[in-house]
Amino acid sequence: MVAVVDEQGCCVFVNAVLESVIGLSRRMLAHCPLSDWFKEPLALQEALGAVERNEFATRRFEAELRRTGVGGAESLHVHVIVSQTEHPYRGLLVEMLEIEQQARQEREERVMGQAQVTKELIRNLAHEIKNPLGGIRGAAQLLAMELPSPELTEYTEVIIHEADRLQTLVDRLLAPHRKPHVVSDVNIHEVCERVRSLVLAEHPKGLSVVRDYDTSLPEFRGDREQLIQAVLNIVHNACQALSERIVQGDGQIVLRTRAARQVTLGKQRYRLALELHIQDNGPGIPEALRERIFYPLVSGREGGSGLGLTLAQTFVQQHQGTIECSSEPGRTDFKIVIPLP
Residue 32: helix, strand or coil by DSSP? Predict the structure, then answer.
C-alpha cells in the first residue's frame, strides 16, 4: 500500500492496493489528510514532519489503519515507512506493509539467504569429499588384486561399495550446479501431468492424484526439467508419508494451481504469479522437523538422503520463486510460488 502526500499530509497519489484496503476510490481520497485513516494520527503526523524537516531520511512505526467496513470498526495492523520522494509529486512517500506480509517477506529473505549459504557450503564440502574418495576406491581395487585369499576381498568390496555410495551422494549434491539452466516456454500443467503419470505408474493402486487446475494460467520462461524434478521430489516425499494410507487404499495427493496477484517475492513486487499447491492427506510432518525440512541431509525417514526438498527449493529459487510448507495431521501442503510475465 503506497501513498504520496504533500507538505500538509494530504494525499496526492494512492495506489490501487490502498484504495482496496480503505474501501474508497483515489478520487475520494485525493487532497484528504492520510492521517484521517489512522487510529492514532499523531504518530503519522510526527513522522511526516520529521522527514519533511530532514531530521530523518526515513521513519518507521507500527499503526492501525482504519477501513470502511460494517460500522467502520475494521482495522489493519500495518508497518509504516515514511521517506522522501521527488519526481513526479515532490512530496513524501508513505508505504504501509501489513504486519503479516512484512513477517512473510522477512522470512522469505532469511530462507533465501540461508539457502544460498547452505548451497555454497554443501558444494565446497562435496568437492572436498570427492577428491580423496576416488583415491580410496582406487587403492581398494589395487589392494583386492594383490590379496592372496578370496575371503579377504570381501573387505575391499565393502570399501568399494561404500565409496560408490558416497560418490552417488556427492553427485546429487553437485547436480544443481552442474546442469545448465535450460530456458524454454513452460506450461505448469504439463509439468504436473508428467509428475502425475510417473507417480501413478509407481503406485497404480491405493493412491489418487487429484487435478485442480486453473487452466487460464499463462506459460512462462523456465527450465521444464528442473520444475518436473522439484515437483516430483515433493510428491515422492508425500507418497512415502502416505505409505500406510496407500495400503489401506485411501491415499490422496492434490495438485492445485491458482493465480496470485500483486505478490511480493523477496523485495520485488510482481503483478501476477502462479501458486502450485501439492497437498496430501498423510500424517503430517513431525513438529521437530518442520523448521528444518529444507535443510540438506535432514530426513524424516530411515534411509532417506534428505536431499529431495533441498533440491526442490534450489530449483524453485532459480526461477525467482519460493516454496513453503504448512502441515498438520491429515493435511500437508507445499506451496510453490513463481512469478509470471
Answer: coil
pLDDT in tens, 317-338: 889 898 988 999 999 999 999 9
Which residues touch 133 (CB under 8 Å, ≥6 apart)? 163, 166, 167, 170
> Residue 115: CA atoms inside 13 Å, Cβ hemisphere, count?
24
Query: Could you tell me which of 80, 75, 88 has the C-alpha nearest to residue 48?
Result: 80
Residue pair 82/55 in contact (Cβ under 8 Å)? The answer is: no
14: left (phi over 0), alpha (psi -120 to 50) or beta: beta
Q: How far is 66 from 273, CA to CA, in rounded Å?
A: 29
Query: Strand, helix or coil at 128?
Result: helix
Q: pLDDT for 19-38, tens place per residue?
A: 888 888 888 888 888 988 89
Length of the chain: 341
Q: Is the pTM of this model over 0.85?
A: no
What is the grid cell recorded at 192?
Answer: 504436473
Question: Hey, CA dihedral for 9, 12, 16, 19, is it positive or negative?
Answer: positive
Dihedral of alpha carbons 284, 289, 294, 300, sign:
negative
Number of Cα atoms under 13 Å in the Cβ half of residue 25: 2
Contact in structure between 276 and 311 (CB atoms under 8 Å): no
Strand partners, 199: none
Residue corresponding to grid cell 521444464: 224
C-alpha–C-alpha distance, residues 111 and 292, integer Å:
11
> Could you tell me the three cell numbers for 119?
548451497
